[in-house]
Amino acid sequence: MSQLETLPAPLPAPPCPATPRRFPTAARLVRPALVLLPLVLIGVWALVDREAAYKGVARLAAADPWWLLAALLFTCLTWVAAACVRQGALPERLPPGLLVASQFAAGAANQVLPAGIGAHAVTLRFLQRRGIPLPRATASLALYSLVKPVARTLVLLVFLVAFPDVLRLGALVPDDRTLLLAAGGAVLALAATAVLLVAVRALRRPVLGFLRTALTDARELHTRPNRVLALWGGAAATPLLQGSVIATVGFSLGLPLSWTQVILALLVAGTAVGAVPAPGGIGPVDAALVFTMAAFGAPVGTATATVIGYRVLTVWLPLLPGALVLSALLHRKVL
């Protein structure tokens, strides 16, 4: 037998593995879902509030169109003011056009989730897409949330000093028991937060790091006059613009109150129940606003129609365009 015949036969080559069939990954499905989610939520919102929206549109159909045009102008300026406050709360410069568009989209998201969560989520995503680190972006949101109520309170105090004869406090002033309960709740919340930080070590380090970043950024921002003007000027202008929307809608419906009285009614109502976690402030703030305007001498029916018209212009009318802008920003990866 020859030497070639004694060699073992070569092993067959292993079969080539079949090319795995590619399935859509989760990342490919998440973005289309996020793009469509605002439209779905707006559809649900429209079904729930369709009766109120219909009544509001019917009321506005018979109103003075020139006053309504002024109200629409003030509504657009509220988004510009919000963008100014957002820019003022951050050292880095943001593109103005995209910033205003993000705030317009954030307004639509804010009507679905309570306590400003929707607007903060959209803004946080926008800041991260612009390369802002998460601690600094979160600190800017905290500063934004802190400055707005402080500026609102300062504007209220200025109005109280400048127009003392306009006020008819009466039933608007809470009694001693209500004030005591509010103060006790605030003290308990602060005490619970302190105990939680002391007891849970895992929370202590990120919270202290967040506070360090927030204080550093706040100190730096207040050394720059343009940021101070944007931050505090925009925060002070916001309630004035919102009150101007309510006033012009009320004037179109024959509301027998002055601009000063309407602004004071909004400031008092917002200060009293602004912390209630309702979507976009709808519900508690509306009821308090009607009650406050009635206390200033407006008929309850006209005050109610004014608030409904205000919500049509600031919530229902921009809702669909805001959702479309939100979807477009998600599609273009701005958010």
Automatic annotation (TrEMBL):
Compartments in which it is found: Cell membrane
Domain of life: Bacteria
Bilayer disposition of the protein: Multi-pass membrane protein
Keyword Transmembrane helix: yes
Transmembrane segments: 29-46, 66-85, 179-203, 229-251, 257-276, 288-307, 313-330
Keywords assigned by UniProt, alphabetized: Cell membrane, Membrane, Transmembrane, Transmembrane helix
InterPro entries: L-PG_synthase/AglD (IPR022791)
Record bears the keyword Cell membrane: yes
Coiled-coil regions listed in the entry: none
Protein name: Membrane protein
Organism in which the protein naturally occurs: Streptomyces lomondensis
